[in-house]
Amino acid sequence: QVQLVESGGGLVQAGGSLRLSCAASGFPFSSYCMGWFRQAPGKEREFVAGVSRNGGATQYADSVKGRFTISRDNAKNTVYLQMNSLKSDDTALYYCAADRTTSPSTVAVRTTQFDYWGQGTQVTVSS
């Protein structure tokens, strides 16, 4: 069975850092593009960051560029999101997702492109 399990969320003060992890199982991880999305109350789910199958390409939402870094370790079937300089606007439920249809060197950024989703991990930034 396919499983994506996010962890690392929590409460942090503005300016602080968190590192989210997403452990994947039940599918060929290295054949999937991976992404992070977030959804805050009253807002639509939005793309945060994505990484291609081999980690060679990444994309970020403008709102997190320079602060967040996505990476993956295919040997561990894990994707990470390092979040620095956190702001109150970063408060949201963060989801990791997997896309099997995107070309190997391409990063998927649309919600509808992703096939598998985790349950999410809550990130709350106090200000």
Name its key features.
mainly beta, four-stranded antiparallel beta sheet, seven-stranded mixed beta sheet, 0% helix, 11 strands, 127 residues
Could you outline the blueprint of secondary structure elements for this entry?
Elements: E1 3-7, E2 10-13, E3 18-25, E4 33-39, E5 46-51, E6 58-60, E7 68-73, E8 78-83, E9 92-99, E10 116-117, E11 121-126
Parallel strand pairs: 2-11
Antiparallel strand pairs: 1-3, 3-8, 4-5, 4-9, 5-6, 7-8, 9-10, 9-11
Query: What is the global morphology?
Result: globular
Strand content: over 45%
* Fraction of helical residues: under 10%
Class from secondary-structure proportions = mainly beta
**Biggest β-sheet: count, sense, barrel?**
7 strands, mixed
C-alpha end-to-end distance: 40 Å
| Overall mean confidence score, pLDDT | 96
Determine the number of helices (DSSP H or I, runs of at least 4 residues).
Answer: 0
**Number of E-type strands:** 11
Low-confidence stretches: none
Order of helices and strands: EEEEEEEEEEE
Radius of gyration: 13 Å
